[in-house]
Specification:
With 430 residues, the protein is an alpha/beta fold. The protein has 14 helices and 13 strands. The radius of gyration is 23 Å and the shape is globular. It comes from Citrifermentans bremense.
Length: 430
């Protein structure tokens, strides 16, 4: 699924050339002001807790110097909205001063002028579709798992059909093959309007820059450490496999007293079952990206036995989850489930471990690596290398940039196709 380096560089050159060529000719709005090439609308950004949003939107802000982000600040009542937004923006601008002034509170669509609007998740696209259509703004969006997208559900389908029926809809980016197949089989939109880019956008460069040397068991530390990283969306965290994690932990501590467990996210001690895990689990709460490089340096396994269709009918997670991708990029062995067979490129037991949602079987698999830690660290190194090939931010973002450019101007799509054909040695036709 990775892009050869030569093609990758050429696409980047096409993007820069296209932007340089079109920027001077950018249309002017009222008062003679230049119309931005891209406006991003989001309900959470610039909250730093959402690492994938920060990574993706920052990349667009860097590549499109006139791009803007309009934040809906979770659409809470205005007084709380403003306080929340101000806190987010101040923290964001401290960490990313180069983007100061380019993220503002969304005040409505009537005054927005841009060549393209971009959103993520079907709920966001649907929430704003009437205003987008009234303003006549062309738009594209990414249909990530979650955010209101549920397979085979009437309400989700209704939202999809409304958004795709808009005369202003240009393209949808999908990140999982089940999403692509669902849209095409259901004839929600035209095949040429679907851009399949497997994976997700994570801050790989930041994680790599801050990565610390790994501490290995048992030579460099006295505990074998397993982590679970997720938000709690339902009682028991069954959708994320927290029940499987805790039962696996209970079984492991009964035979391995030096195993420790670590939980990052919105779970707490009250979520633990009674008996058997006292003093064995540490909770860290919700954390931002800068916490994880040092945290993962001491972790041996991240366990993510998530289950589809239990949070809500048709609801599912991508493979692997964003938390697993971040852990893998930091050199942690990823043990995750794949009940929907979404894995397109990773080899089980070579660079990832696919686990069932069965605590007894998960316990057996973990013990195999606990008893032979060298095998675990060899697997973790291969996991890191494989994840870097697929999830490096540049490899993820370049096809996304090309997709958005093709929505702004058909010539961008033609030039991108020509660049790819040239790299492959194929004949380029007009």
């Amino acid at each position: 699924m990775s892009i050869p380096s030569g093609i990758s560089r050429r696409i980047g050159e096409v993007c820069r050339t296209f932007l340089a060529r079109t920027r001077p000719a950018t249309a002017a709005g009222k008062g003679g002001k230049a119309v931005p090439s891209l406006v991003i609308v989001d309900d959470i950004f610039p909250n730093l807790v959402s690492a994938f949003r920060v990574a993706e939107y920052n990349y667009y802000l860097e590549q499109f110097p006139d791009a803007q982000v309009r934040s809906a600040a979770a659409l809470v009542p205005f007084s709380a909205n403003w306080r929340r937004f101000r806190g987010w923006i101040e923290e964001y601008e401290r960490q990313y001063p180069g983007f100061r002034g380019r993220v503002t509170l969304l005040g409505g669509f009537g005054k927005i002028r841009c060549r393209l609007m971009y959103l993520i998740f079907i709920n966001n696209a649907y929430r704003f579709i009437e205003e987008i259509d009234q303003a006549g703004i062309p738009f594209a969006f990414t249909l990530y798992p979650g955010g209101g997208f549920h397979l085979g559900q009437e309400e989700s389908d209704r939202k999809l059909r409304r958004v795709f029926s808009s005369p202003n809809f240009r393209k949808v980016i999908v990140t999982q093959k089940v999403t692509r197949d669902y849209l095409l089989q259901g004839e929600f939109c035209l095949p040429e309007q679907v851009e399949f880019i497997y994976g997700g956008v994570l801050p790989s460069e930041l994680l790599q820059a801050r990565q610390l040397p790994r501490r290995r068991y048992p030579t460099e530390k006295g505990s074998f450490d397993i982590c679970f990283v997720a938000h709690k969306y339902m009682e028991g965290g069954i959708d994320k496999g927290f029940d499987v994690f805790t039962e696996t932990a209970r079984r492991l501590v009964a035979v391995c007293p030096d195993i420790r467990f670590h939980v990052v996210g919105t779970f707490g001690p009250s979520d633990l079952p009674s008996g058997g895990l006292e003093g064995k689990v540490t909770f860290y709460g919700t954390r931002t990206t800068d916490f994880f490089p040092s945290f993962y340096a001491g972790m041996d396994i991240i366990l993510s036995p998530n289950v589809p269709f239990v949070l809500a009918p048709g609801a599912f997670d991508g493979f692997p989850t964003g938390c697993c991708i971040e852990a893998g990029l930091c050199g942690v062995a990823v043990f995750c489930s794949d009940p929907l067979d979404l894995n397109p490129c990773f080899v089980d037991r070579e660079d990832i471990v696919i686990v069932p949602s069965n605590p007894a079987r998960v316990t057996e698999i973990v013990l195999e690596y606990y008893r032979y830690p060298d095998r675990l660290y060899e697997l973790a190194a291969r996991c890191r290398d494989s994840f870097l090939r697929v999830f490096d931010i540049r490899r993820q973002m370049q096809p996304r940039l090309q997709a958005l450019l093709s929505c702004m101007d058909g010539q961008g799509e033609k030039e991108g196709a020509a660049a790819l054909a040239q790299e492959k040695g194929e004949e380029v036709t007009a």
